[in-house]
């Protein structure tokens, strides 16, 4: 059962949603925020017992709203919730309590991200603000609305619990050591694609029924969304361009169907 937090749908004092005037690449380069990411990932675990202490650590030394949002995003991305062993009893209304709810599917990452950013911003005009839409967020940074999908940004893979060296367990068909299953843990990384994603790319994956929050000059209808080709995420970072019709179904001509792409290198 989800426990939805009391996070406002929108906050007063902010401009209405509108397409951002620039691309993500014009305002954000991940390499410029390496120190912000590093500090956020190194936040002491004890800070998860108090919102004020955590937000102070993540944002106090940062001057821009974008840097603050990035710090919150980086910290949340570094929390390996599924592998964390939480105490049986945790203090309510704390970051630790929220993380524990996420682990057991009792609340959403988007709610937690909104809550953290709102506590850091203080709802003042010109600072960052969140609008929760199901499982993703819109943030107002540097004078424009941008899209963030926190749960999709958390890349999870299975890995060995600790570094193992190779040893001989079998020789000439005979077992030298008893076989044992390798212990695994969930490794977590951050997918940059889902931080401040350009709306024209984001909307190929996530459809906001409240059309103004698509942040598109010409918002899509449900029919347009479902009629789009199924793009892989790598398409939008590859510089390839689809020249054929933007349709999920193409009609073959005499049993053949041509799909054309272009690339700047060709």
UniProtKB/TrEMBL annotation:
It comes from the Eukaryota. InterPro entries: Transglut-like_Superfamily_Mod. Residues 1-20 are annotated as: Disordered. This is Uncharacterized protein. It comes from Batillaria attramentaria. The lineage of its organism: Eukaryota, Metazoa, Spiralia, Lophotrochozoa, Mollusca.
């Amino acid at each position: 059962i989800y426990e939805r937090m009391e996070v406002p749908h929108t906050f007063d004092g902010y401009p209405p949603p509108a397409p951002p005037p620039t691309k993500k690449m014009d305002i954000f380069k991940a390499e410029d925020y390496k120190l912000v990411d590093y500090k956020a990932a190194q936040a002491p675990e004890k800070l998860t017992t108090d919102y004020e202490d955590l937000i102070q650590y993540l944002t106090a030394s940062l001057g821009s709203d974008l840097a603050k949002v990035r710090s919150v995003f980086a910290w949340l991305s570094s929390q390996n919730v599924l592998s964390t062993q939480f105490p049986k009893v945790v203090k309510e209304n704390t970051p630790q309590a929220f993380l524990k709810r996420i682990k057991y599917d009792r609340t959403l990452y988007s709610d937690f991200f909104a809550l953290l950013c709102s506590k850091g911003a203080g709802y003042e005009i010109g600072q960052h603000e969140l609008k929760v839409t199901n499982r993703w967020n819109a943030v107002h940074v540097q004078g424009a609305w941008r899209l963030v999908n926190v749960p999709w940004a958390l890349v999870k893979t299975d890995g060995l619990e600790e570094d193992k060296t190779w040893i001989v367990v079998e020789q000439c068909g005979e077992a030298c050591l008893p076989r044992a299953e390798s212990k695994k843990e969930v490794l977590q990384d951050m997918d940059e694609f889902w931080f401040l994603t350009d709306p024209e790319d984001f909307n190929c994956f996530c459809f906001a029924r409240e059309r103004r929050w698509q942040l598109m000059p010409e918002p899509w209808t449900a029919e347009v969304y479902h009629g789009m080709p199924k793009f892989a995420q790598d398409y939008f970072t590859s510089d390839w361009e689809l020249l054929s019709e933007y349709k999920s179904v193409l009609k073959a001509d005499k049993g053949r169907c041509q799909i054309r792409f272009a690339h700047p290198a060709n």
